[in-house]
Write a structure and sequence with these properties.
single chain; globular; Rossmann fold; seven-stranded parallel beta sheet; 13 helices; two-stranded parallel sheet; alpha/beta
């Protein structure tokens, strides 16, 4: 019997992108979903995904969905405002299910664990020196995987990435930039416009997840996967505005007081305040270990990724 791969968190950017990468490799994909209607909208353009209705907060539901699966791609996330209470508990359910069913768990990490950059290019050996609440939670989540490996034999891979952009990245921030560009409205950025940053195209992130999940070379490994290149918000937003063809202007909020003020009206802006350092100071990761392990992996240039994201936004948001 051909083994399947379970996506927990299919109706999110990285979940959908991971499913797409697996489908394109002719792998069989199962998605644990609560809302079938929303899931079918996310599955447009993808063929053969098997939906299992259930809840990622239910251990029996996750274990049922894992029948005949070899891999659990943990792509679930909760809103920033729920991280403190829910993020670790939600992951623990999938970890327990993966241990009980003896399957590999692939986890999408991020740069929050590192805190402020202590290296020109942040590699996997960089200290986990997070100063923020969210960064410390992400460290604890990664430690849960390492501990489960030592104590219960969990097979896992961690794939750390910078901020996502692209189709189906709907977080109240990224998609608004593309929507506004298509309508000629102002593009709002939080952080410095000239600070070196990197973004990863979401489908590159999905490809990286799939490669790590399908290869034993990634078992027990922690990888950084970089964006295609260093850029700045000014260059990134200018390219979006140019391709959208509506001459949208852009501005930034780079003062903590103003971000706090925006947080009075926008809960996401309030939560973003402690992560402002990522948009105010340089933190660029090295993806060398991943590229040398998987030499077929290539990053999508910003120009191409932006074009594809604008095309998606036109259709998705009508």
């Amino acid at each position: 019997m051909k083994m399947k791969h379970l996506i927990v968190g299919f109706t999110g950017g990285i979940g959908r992108a991971t499913a797409k990468a697996l489908v394109e490799k002719n792998e069989e994909v199962v998605a644990l979903v609560r809302d079938l209607q929303k899931s079918e909208k996310y599955a447009q353009g993808l063929s053969g995904i098997e939906f299992v209705q259930g809840d990622a907060t239910s251990l029996p539901d996750v274990e049922k969905a894992l029948e005949n699966c070899s891999t659990l791609f943990y792509c679930a996330n909760v809103p920033y405002t729920h991280w403190q209470k829910e993020a670790r508990e939600l992951l623990s359910i999938s970890i327990t299910a993966a241990i009980n069913k003896k399957v590999k768990l692939v986890f999408p990490g991020n740069v929050y664990v590192y805190g402020k950059a202590q290296q020109h290019l942040v590699n996997e050996g960089h200290p986990h020196a997070a100063q923020t609440k969210k960064g410390k939670i992400r460290i604890e989540m990664e430690q849960m995987l390492v501990r489960a490996n030592k104590e219960s034999g969990l097979c896992y891979s961690i794939v750390r990435m910078p901020d996502f952009y692209g189709p189906y990245v709907v977080n109240g921030f990224s998609e608004k930039i593309f929507q506004n560009a298509l309508q000629g409205k102002k593009l709002q950025w939080y952080g410095g416009l000239d600070v070196p940053i990197e973004m990863i195209y979401i489908e590159d992130g999905g490809e990286a997840m799939a490669l790590a999940g399908l290869s034993s070379k990634a078992d027990g490994m922690q990888f950084n996967v970089s964006g295609c290149a260093e850029t700045t918000a000014k260059k990134f937003l200018k390219e979006i505005s140019s391709q959208a063809g509506k001459n949208a202007k852009f501005s930034s909020i780079n003062i903590e007081f103003l971000v706090s003020l925006a947080g009075l009206f926008n809960p996401m802006a309030k939560e973003f305040k402690e992560m402002m350092y990522l948009k105010s100071q340089r933190l660029i990761i090295s993806g060398e270990l991943f590229r040398t392990t998987f030499n077929t992996f290539t990053e999508t240039p910003y120009e191409e990724g932006i074009r594809k994201t604008l095309d998606w936004a036109k259709n998705y948001f009508n």
